[in-house]
Amino acid sequence: MDRAGPLPSAAPPTVMVWDPVVRIFHWTVAAGCVANLFIVEDGDLAHLVIGYAVAAVLVVRLIWGFVGTPHARFSDFVPGVRQLADYVKLLVQGREPRLLGHNPAAAVMMMVLMALLAAVSVTGWMATLDAFWGVEWVEELHEFTADAILWLALLHAAAAIYESRRHHENLVWSMVTGRKRA
Predict the structure, then answer these.
(1) Does residue 104 form part of some domain?
(2) Is 182 contained in some domain?
(3) How high is the pLDDT of residue 182?
(4) CATH number, domain with residue 44
């Protein structure tokens, strides 16, 4: 029996963008920050272990930014000032292009978050040393950077949702699978 009607449309082709190192870094940092900010007690062994794990994946990601797959390399996505300004202008006009890798605004956010992760890691480590035990500015800087990471991560998540809707693709899922629409 012959059935009339449209054939189901095939899913659009996808390409691998985010390699396993990038995805493991992303989700390890996300889980580590949530755990250290909301679940474990400051100064507990679990807090320290999670902090060192985040610092370790940050070091791996920094190295991977120079030797990794094409979309993982800093040379692929870190924008110049002019490129960032042009992108932001188009974004404000609602005409920003869809990019396969990080867009310039996301790249800047990623670099700022990585710098804050480095700062929170270093100040957390410093707080464990006798030389800085109880030193107020170290503790305050550690707390400030942790809070800044939280707020910027929330902005990052909101931007990913906005971009997903704007460009009709699930960016959160692409960070799970590594694949984006071609």
Answers:
(1) yes
(2) no
(3) 87
(4) 1.20.950.20
